[in-house]
Amino acid sequence: MLRFLVLYTALALGANVAQAADLDAVKDGQMESLVTYSKPLPLPPFSFTDETGAEHSMKEFEGKVVLINFWATWCPPCREEMPSLNALQKAFGPDDFKVLTIATGGSNSPAKVASFFDKEGIDALPRFHDDANFAARAMGVLGLPVSVLIDHNGHEVGRMIGGAEWDSPEAKKVIQALIDDK
To answer: What is the pTM of this model?
Structure first.
């Protein structure tokens, strides 16, 4: 497993910086920190759970542009960017785009996530969990927050390490470019 994690992380972070959907042409401001790839990367198989313990996978989101946000309730930059992720989901609606928030690590109980979401008015995002860090490890997440941008074909096309203002005009341009690239 460790070899796979190291290999996936090396592929994701060492890929040529460019993008099939020409995201580089629309990246500016804070989105210039979004690492993009000349060839989209296939996703490794992984699953995550919802508040009820039901298991989910990326197959449920096929055909949509997805922004997976790995975060934790104890992580200040994670908590800070959550309202902008909520606003981004509201701006694009559920038809072509989905933000998946996956609280990773055992200290992010469904009750803690629910309390944080309720207190902050986060009402457009799912409350997914990755208690044993299996999804985070599969995706090569080494710190938090990490947001992974997935195209319509279910491939990783970009990765932001650290927090971002996801409802900014710059971020919306990137998301719209991917949505338009059908």
So the answer is: 0.87
